[in-house]
Amino acid sequence: MGYATLVPQTGTAAIAIADVDGGRISGLLIDAGPVNSPVLFQIGNPGGPRASHAWNPTSLSDVFFRVGGATPGTATTSLEIDSNDVILDNIWAWRADHGNGVGWTVNVADHGLVINGDNVTALGLFVEHYEQNQVVWKGEHGMTIFYQSELPYDVPSESAWMNGTVDGYSSYSVSDPVRTHVAYGLGVYSFFDQGIDIVEDSDITVPNTEGVTITHAVAVFITGSGSTTHVVDDAGGSVQSGTQTSFLPFYQGAPCERNCPVAPSAPSRLIATYISSDQVDLRWTPSLNPLVRYSVFRSLNPGFTPAAQNQLYSGLTKASFTDTSVNPATYYYSVEALSDEGTSQPSNIASATVPSSGGPISTDVLDINAGGGAIGSWVADEFLAGGTATSTGATINTSLIPNPAPQAVYQTNRFGTFTYTIPGFTANSSFIVDLHFAETFWTMPGQRQFNVLINGNEVLKNFDILAFAGGKNVATVQSFLVTADNTGTITIQFVPGAGDNPQVNGIEIGIPCTANCPVAPNAPMKLTATAGSPNQVNLTWTASTTTGVTYSVFRSQEPGIRPTGADQIASGLPGTSYSDTSANPSTTYYYDVEAFDNGGTSAASNYASVTTPTAGGVITSDVLDINAGGGAVDNWVADEDFSGGTATSTSAAINTSHVANPAPQAVYQTNRFGNFTYTIPGFTAGARYIVDLHFAETFWTAPGQRLFNVLINGNQVLTNYDMFASAGGEFIATVESFAVTADATGTITIQFVPGAADNPQVNGIEIGVGTAAAAQKQ
Question: The dihedral of CA 546, 398, 333, 360: what is its sign?
Fold first, then answer.
């Protein structure tokens, strides 16, 4: 029969309760009526005295509000509490985003909940789409446990949603006079669907006092346009297209001065133990603090940093964990302890290797080009049911595979949900099945994850081609020892996992090698790296003891490099030295080398690191400062002297602490991107200047997603520059400096041209005179 529904018709409250003991209201639905109600449900006397009801509080359970949607209506506030000690249990207040009577000026409603009483507790509070603050909390000693909110979808313009001079209204607002308030588990979601870049400054706003704390808050950008700058007050990162979530473990309105919370001690002595093809067991020494919970992080990178994108599990109360989602690979694990006081430092990193059940093939029996035609010994796609064939013209890097398929095999694939039922093998005999993959569509780990079963046994779980290969358009192979069934059939099923569609490029089936099988070569040793110039690093190493090998060189801007196709800068080298001439100035690089032959790839050499010198110097007197993509700010002039590209901006705060003499914050919040050139006149012909290029990545969230080149007066000064990697993260400023000579016309020309990924970008151009690096003096 549904809930009893109340709809006031003349602008009154549907229900009003005096400031009394023991009220009990549950199982009600209240709709706004045709005449605006200042409040739909009133508890207590507004502005009047409030008695204590601690021993017999009023409670609301399963009470729901709608403004529009079912019937047209308006109401300024859905629920107002002017009584102490009230308990709210499962309250949903909704200004409709669809249905009858919906529109910014139609179902007008300011607030879902206003609390003026003290000692009010909310357990399960859901407030959505109101036009100002969803919740306004003015009472002392309030507590919320679980809050979910969506900002209004239909904000027509930024000016229509300004809270005075502040961009947008926070969802959860604790008023300034409040001195004590706690909230746990808050999530605020944005979906501005009008095609306008609406900006909200903070999802949650609280007073600047140590008695107010927010524990476990998250901002989520669902889709649409616009952004949210902070999670709570000025803390927490922004969310917008490309950055879907920002999590803030703990926030306190002001630094604590006494009896302050202390983050728990780190767990230690983490050990990872391989148990079986589908299990790795973890155990660790617990944190010294009681009542902590543990989060487990996992990566394929030995030098990884625990973060949201590599969190495997959370909320553990025991000092052990069983990982049953493994594939053949070496995994690296770390654990953190979490409490209401904060998050510990990470534990040590522990690793475990899940071996492949496959191995070398002595003789191929059947090779299938999935999604493609016959090529060499590979037959056209056959024995399949389901899925769709597709192809690419991109070149695939196959240098990390000992016996790769032809290039064309990796350029075609079958995707979707599909099965290969392959007959004709000797019943109950063993075969090696090599599945060949290359990700040719997605650009980030986690975007494609799927499962594979062979003869009913799951052999790959949430397999991520890009993560295993190390990048887009890089080949990788997974090998399995398989027994044909009683009918001589091998059945391979590809079924969806955690992301997008399954995909395979080639299926190679052969006889296992049992004698004189190729083995991987021994690793090279004693790798050294020496900076030869701002753009060159020279590498030398001791040869592998295995004869006839070639070498591949890998480079990263992060320590603990895992050699993959994305990090490979050279392959097929016959000697024991290499000059990396694609280095950028003032950059720390990490290198390793591997030996390669038909037996496979060796273990990595030792790691060698080096920092290249600057190509510029220190500006002591500015000549011209250009705010790329933005207007004039301080001594920085509005964007000028450019051709091409597009201007854009963000309201996110930029960390400038890594820059010795940073530009104003506003410079890093605007940029020009695309393929563009600055042709800047007015300098003294033949004179020396220092050009500082200011950068801050405000869109991408991982290294390798933006790689571009820069030329100054025709000389390439940056090659596949990665501002995210150079800065150390998103929303962090970094500067590259160059000593430059103005040409015969007194012009400095700076070209930004695409490199290996996405568009070039610059935030500011600073040109001055000063002290150039010694290596650059003439």
Answer: negative
Span 180-194, pLDDT tens digits:
999 999 999 999 999
Q: DSSP per residue over 543-589, as a string?
A: PPSSTT-EEEEEEESSSS----GGGEEEEEE-SSEEEETT--TT-EE
CB 99 within 8 A of CB 133: no
715 Cβ contact partners less than 8 Å away, ≥ 6 residues apart: none
H or E element, residue 724: helix 723-727
CA atoms within 13 A on the CB side of 65: 38
DSSP string, 347-392: ---EEEEE--S---EEEEEEEEETTS--BTTBEES-SEEEEEEEE-
C-alpha of 283 from chain center: 28
Q: DSSP label at 395?
A: P
Place of tokens 């002039």: 637
Q: Give how far the C-alpha of residue 150 lies from the chain's centroid of Cα atoms, to the nearest Å.
A: 21
| Beta bridge pairs of residue 17 | 43
CA 111, 112, 118, 124 torsion: positive or negative? Answer: negative
Q: In angstroms, how far is CA 653 from the centroid of its own chain?
A: 17
CA distance 36 to 24: 26
C-alpha angle with apex 523: 517 to 527, nearest 5 degrees?
165
Residue 678 has pLDDT above 80, yes or no: yes
Classify 308 as helix, strand or coil.
Answer: helix
Q: How many CB atoms lie within 10 A of CB 724?
A: 25
Mark 460-499 as b/e (b = at least 16 C-beta within 10 Å): bbbbbbbbbbbbbbbbbbbbbebebeeeeebbbbbeebee
Burial of 339 (0-12, 13-18, 19+ CB in 10 A): buried
**Under a CB-based contact definition with an 8 Å cutoff, are residues 232 and 187 in contact?**
no
Strand pairing class (764-772; 617-627): antiparallel
* E runs forming strands in 722-759: 733-741, 748-757
The pair phi, psi for residue 483, each rounded to 5°, is -105, 125
Question: Tokens representing 409?
Answer: 């095999």
* Spatial distance between the Cα atoms of 736 and 740, rounded to a whole number of angstroms: 13
- Token pair belonging to 776: 């650059």
Plot region of 647 (φ>0 → left; ψ -120 to 50 → alpha; else → beta): beta
At residue 4, φ and ψ (nearest 5 deg) are -60, 135
pLDDT tens figures, 145-199:
999 999 999 999 999 999 999 999 999 999 999 999 999 999 999 999 999 999 9
465 DSSP assignment? H
C-beta of residue 339 within 8 angstroms of C-beta of residue 263:
yes
Collapse the DSSP code of 409 into the 3-class scheme (helix H, G, I; strand E, B; otherwise coil) and give the result.
Answer: helix
Q: Which residues make Cβ contacts (< 8 Å) with residue 691, sequence separation at least 6?
A: 616, 712, 737, 738, 739, 740, 748, 750, 765, 766, 767
Distance between CA atoms of 58 and 24, rounded to whole angstroms?
6
Does residue 773 carry a pLDDT above 70?
no
Tell me the one-letter amino acid at 399: S
Give the Cβ contact number of residue 388 at 10 Å.
12
Per-residue pLDDT, 1: 57
**Would the pTM count as exceeding 0.90?**
no
**Residue 712, pLDDT score:** 97
Strands of 577-580's sheet, edge to edge?
A: 525-533, 536-542, 577-580
Over the stretch 355-405, which tens digit does the pLDDT of each residue have?
A: 999 999 999 999 999 999 999 999 999 999 999 999 999 999 998 888 899
Q: Do residues 300 and 330 touch, judged by C-beta distance below 8 A?
A: yes
pLDDT greater than 50 at residue 775: no
Q: What is the pLDDT of residues 641-655, one digit of tens each?
A: 999 999 988 877 899
